[in-house]
């Protein structure tokens, strides 16, 4: 007797209730799909649910970050600052979830441990850590690109008797800094925000820095009621601007040729950039700054002088100026009084290039020079970015192949959305997609909309599986690699290039991000849909 095929419990399972999962759920419910969202946290919000560390805030303009799909929502929500802090963003996402009745379709506190494609049933079988198994036709990952936090591979971490926090897993209860001697390890975008925020509150602060980053002022400010009303009348222009810039931010490159601008004009322009809010100082620059090492050196020196002006102790200032990479070739941390923190008597910098950390002890941090005693250690040591969240779930596709093995030497994908051998597994913010190098909500809208159309198409055509062709996957991966050529980002070690010193094997260049820009990526997706999803195989 022929085996009876069993229907899956769900048409669609979305893993993750962050910015991306929320919007995907909304689109799936509009299509009356049987859908559920599985989320590890006890509430929605993703990045903004977890990262509750002091100082956490946007570096996208708040009004360029909100969802664009509902005019009513845009008109109802008031942002209080040009770059809102984490609690406000989390409230916003909760507001969206409640306004569109999404909460009942979300399951919180459940962690997906593995997912296996059942080739007989053409279904994904999703295992949760609580022992349950769910099944679905389409498995959509909205698991975040910076959600697999990594602690430093330093011996003795568990020996420390004081308080210890990774910024991503910051406690929900208030943490007091009063009278405390605090260490911060890590000076990326997160460390920089934490340091500036807690410096005035702690008894003493020691910053353990391995490689400094080029940081620049955020220039945040309040939004008055009248200004917010004004912003609400301009949303069309705001989103139109985001649509045309490579990063989908309100900031796009200056299209003038560097050489066509006189030195005096250039310096005045750079002064203006430095005084502008947000990423203008990075993304509003001449394009050659990030392509031509000599021009990049000039701009880096301009920024280095700003650091020298802001930090009183010249020795400390020099230590805070990166020497191993040029400005903007790693993600630029935006800051508010970060450099000034080092002018306070209670703040000092430990340069780990001079005195590396030997271990964590019961009392604090031992370097080659001394044992530093602390009440609290804050690990701002970042993430196993983009692929890390995939590696922490065991995805098994056709013929027992795991995604972990497939991507061991670096990700390979078609359009950054699917991998060959993993039918109906669609990554909404996966490696090599456009969404991971953009103003996130703008970037994911493109993929969520494309995925929605794909699922609608398959339903209407009665198709059960979609999977990329091997040639298409190889072609896209080569295309992604080619975008790294001539781009100075590819010469630096950062999460853009797949580097994480704390994860074995992640010390070599991996092609993680699509650098062709959001407009190009959007155009490719639109064309692909128009051409009936070329490069994908349907059954
Ligand atoms: P990150 O940029 O990867 O920085 C991690 C820091 O920890 C680096 O300074 C790194 O030093 C240091 N580190 C790691 N392991 C270490 C070890 N074993 N010993 C000593 N130092 C160690 O991570 P992040 O700061 O969390 O930022 C990640 C990304 O999150 C950002 O680039 C940004 O995209 C996002 N983010 C966004 C916002 C925002 O929107 N406002 C805020 C925060 C973060 P090395 O550089 O030497 O490896």
Description:
It is a single chain. The protein has helices at residues 19-30, 47-50, 62-65, 71-76, 86-99, 189-198, 225-232, 235-244, 263-275, 280-283, 293-310, 314-320, 338-341, 388-391, 403-406, 440-461, 470-484, 518-530, and strands at residues 10-15, 35-38, 106-107, 112-118, 123-128, 133-141, 163-166, 181-185, 204-209, 216-217, 334-335, 347-351, 357-360, 364-367, 371-373, 376-379, 394-396, 425-427, 466-468, 536-538. The mean pLDDT is 97. Helices cover 32% and strands 16% of the residues. By secondary structure, it is an alpha/beta fold. α16 (440-461) packs parallel to α18. The strands form 5 sheets. Strands 1, 2, 3, 4, 5, 6, 17 and 18 form an 8-stranded mixed sheet that branches. The two termini are 24 Å apart. NADP nicotinamide-adenine-dinucleotide phosphate is lined by residues 57-59, 146, 152-154, 185-191, 193, 210-211, 331, 352, 380-383, 495, 501-502.
Number of strands: 20
Average of per-residue pLDDT values:
97
Tally of separate helices: 18
Query: What is the makeup of the main sheet?
Result: 8 strands, mixed
* Small molecules bound in the structure, each named once: NADP nicotinamide-adenine-dinucleotide phosphate
Short structural summary:
About 30% of the residues lie in helices and about 15% in strands.
Core attributes:
18 helices, alpha/beta, 20 strands, 539 residues, 5-stranded parallel β-sheet, binds NADP nicotinamide-adenine-dinucleotide phosphate, 32% helix
């Amino acid at each position: 007797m022929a085996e009876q095929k069993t229907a899956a419990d769900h048409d669609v399972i979305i893993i993750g209730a962050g910015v991306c999962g929320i919007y995907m759920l909304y689109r799936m419910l509009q299509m009356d799909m049987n859908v559920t969202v599985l989320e590890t946290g006890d509430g929605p919000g993703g990045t903004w649910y977890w990262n509750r560390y002091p100082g956490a805030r946007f570096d996208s303009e708040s009004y360029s970050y909100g969802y664009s799909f509902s005019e009513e929502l845009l008109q109802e929500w008031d942002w209080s600052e040009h770059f809102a802090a984490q609690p406000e963003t989390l409230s916003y996402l909760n507001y969206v979830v409640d306004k569109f009745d999404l909460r009942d379709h979300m399951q919180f506190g459940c962690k997906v441990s593995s997912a296996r494609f059942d080739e007989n049933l053409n279904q994904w079988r999703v295992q949760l850590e609580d022992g349950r198994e769910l099944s679905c036709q389409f498995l959509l990952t909205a698991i975040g690109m910076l959600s697999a936090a990594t602690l430093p591979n330093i011996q003795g971490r568990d020996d420390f008797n004081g308080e210890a926090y990774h910024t991503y897993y910051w406690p929900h209860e208030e943490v007091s800094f009063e009278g405390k001697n605090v260490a911060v390890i890590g000076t990326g975008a997160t460390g920089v925000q934490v340091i500036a925020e807690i410096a005035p509150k702690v008894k003493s602060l020691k910053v353990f820095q391995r490689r400094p980053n080029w940081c620049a002022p955020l220039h945040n400010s309040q939004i008055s009621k009248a200004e917010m009303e004004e912003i609400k009348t301009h949303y069309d222009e705001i989103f139109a601007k985001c649509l045309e810039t490579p990063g989908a931010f309100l900031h796009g490159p200056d299209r003038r040729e560097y050489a066509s601008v006189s030195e005096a004009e250039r310096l005045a322009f750079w002064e203006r950039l430095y005084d502008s809010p947000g990423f203008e100082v990075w993304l509003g620059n001449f394009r050659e700054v990030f392509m031509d090492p000599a021009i990049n050196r000039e701009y880096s020196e301009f920024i280095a002088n700003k650091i020298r002006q802001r930090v009183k102790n010249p020795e400390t200032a020099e230590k805070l100026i990166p020497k191993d990479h040029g400005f903007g070739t790693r993600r630029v941390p935006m800051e508010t009084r970060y450099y000034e923190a080092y002018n306070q008597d209670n703040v000092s910098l430990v340069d780990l290039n001079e005195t590396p950390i030997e271990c964590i002890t019961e009392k604090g941090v031992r370097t080659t020079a001394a044992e530093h005693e602390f009440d609290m250690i804050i690990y701002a040591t970042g993430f196993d970015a983009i692929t890390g969240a995939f590696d922490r779930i065991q995805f098994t596709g056709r013929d027992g192949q795991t995604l972990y093995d497939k991507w061991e030497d670096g990700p390979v994908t078609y359009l950054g959305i699917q991998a060959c051998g993993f039918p109906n597994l669609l990554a909404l913010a996966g490696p090599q997609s456009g969404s991971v190098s953009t103003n996130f909500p703008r970037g994911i809208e493109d993929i969520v909309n494309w995925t929605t159309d794909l699922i609608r198409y398959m339903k209407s055509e009665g198709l059960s599986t979609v999977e990329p062709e091997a040639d298409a996957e190889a072609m896209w991966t080569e295309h992604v690699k080619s975008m790294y050529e001539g781009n100075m980002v590819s010469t630096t070690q950062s999460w853009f290039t797949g580097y994480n010193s704390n994860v074995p094997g992640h010390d070599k260049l991996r092609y993680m991000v699509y650098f062709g820009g959001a407009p190009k990526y959007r155009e490719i997706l639109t064309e692909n849909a128009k051409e009936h999803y070329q490069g994908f195989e349907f059954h």
